[in-house]
From TrEMBL:
PROSITE patterns: ABC_TM1. It is a multi-pass membrane protein. It is found in: Cell membrane. This is ABC transporter permease. InterPro entries: BP-dependent_transpt_permease (IPR050366), MetI-like (IPR000515), MetI-like_sf (IPR035906), OppC_N (IPR025966). The keyword Glycosyltransferase does not apply. Belongs to the binding-protein-dependent transport system permease family. The chain crosses the membrane at residues 51-71, 116-142, 154-171, 177-196, 231-256, 285-306. The keyword Transport applies. Keywords: Cell membrane, Membrane, Transmembrane, Transmembrane helix, Transport.
């Protein structure tokens, strides 16, 4: 009898060997791509046009801030002539002139570094304070959580723009990039702390955290090695959006006259100086406002893309 022929006996049936390919059943697919939260997020982001648009704008703004002379050779302040006050665009001055006769395009290009510096310093300050307060409050809990959370509530109840106005008014003799960044950032961190605290409260209940505690790993090491790295994703989203908000805050303070001194080039100062000429020379207000709006929009768009990419539920709905 052949091996492929089923064997029949009294009360039982033996199937041929070819019909039970155990090797195929037990085979492991080794060619599947590796996957984790960050890899999945990158695969999702790179398929979205909004990510590339915002990334190009952000990289362009950073490049302009570091290398302004590559985009314009016109001095922003040294070549100002009142004869060109609110003048129309010319060959070398593609956006026209301000009321003081300065080149608008040159001032926008050279003011990029100031506005971006304030945004970066504020973001670093709020991120560091938010991580410290949120991580310790969420992980250790108890009285430490109560104290840190109440401190965050106090700062959260104070509008950071209003607080920055008061601080800059008191320290009007020391108005510079670092002082205005401290004035904004010292009251803007509670949002980051709240987001991180909520995420840590969720993550610290995971099995791998309990396993680390069971083998005797110290709480601080668990926080640094296991809990914080798995809780940082929402902070990245908040940080990206906050950078744009910090740039707007600097422009708002300068517009109100309590921000950077007039001798410092920034988009906020140019917008503040141009408001009186809105009817007669609207270009002096429109162009720096466009630079501010496009930059802030790019950071907000990037934050939205990162948020959706790091949310598995949002990825599943698309």
């Amino acid at each position: 009898m052949s091996n492929n022929t089923p064997t029949r006996g009294p009360g039982h049936f033996v199937a041929p060997l070819e019909e039970t390919p155990l090797v195929a059943v037990d085979a492991i697919k080794l060619d599947e791509r590796k996957s984790n939260l960050w890899i999945d997020a990158w695969r999702d982001m790179r398929r979205r046009p909004m990510f590339w648009i915002s990334a190009v704008i952000i990289l362009l703004v950073i490049f302009v801030a570091f290398f302004p002379t590559l985009f314009t050779q016109v001095p922003p302040n040294d070549d100002c002539q009142l004869a060109n006050s609110n003048g129309a665009p010319t060959g070398e001055h593609i956006l026209g002139f301000t009321k003081q006769g300065c080149d608008i395009f040159s001032r926008i290009v050279h003011g990029t570094a100031t506005s971006l510096s304030v945004g970066i310093i504020v973001t670093i300050l709020t991120t560091v304070l938010g991580i410290l307060f949120g991580a310790f409050a969420g992980f250790y809990g108890g009285w430490l959580d109560s104290v840190l959370s109440r401190a965050g509530d106090i700062f959260f109840s104070i509008p950071y723009i209003l607080a920055a106005v008061v601080i800059m008014s008191v320290f009007s003799a020391y108005r510079n990039v670092f002082v205005i960044s401290l004035a904004i950032g010292i009251f803007a961190w509670p949002a980051t702390a709240r987001v991180l605290r909520a995420e840590i409260l969720r993550v610290k209940q995971s099995d791998y955290v309990m396993a680390a505690q069971a083998v005797g790993v110290s709480n601080f090491r668990i926080l640094l090695r296991h809990v914080l790295p798995n809780s940082i994703a929402p902070v990245i989203v908040v940080t990206t959006i906050s950078l744009g908000a910090a740039i707007v805050a600097e422009a708002t303070l300068s517009f109100l006259g309590v921000g950077l001194p007039n001798s410092t080039m920034s988009w906020g100062n140019d917008i503040s100086a141009a408001q009186v000429d809105l009817r007669t020379a609207p270009q002096t207000l429109i162009y720096p406002s466009l630079a501010l709006s496009i930059t802030v929009l790019a950071f907000i768009m990037m934050g939205e893309v990162i948020r959706d990419a790091l949310d598995p539920k949002a990825r599943a709905q698309r």
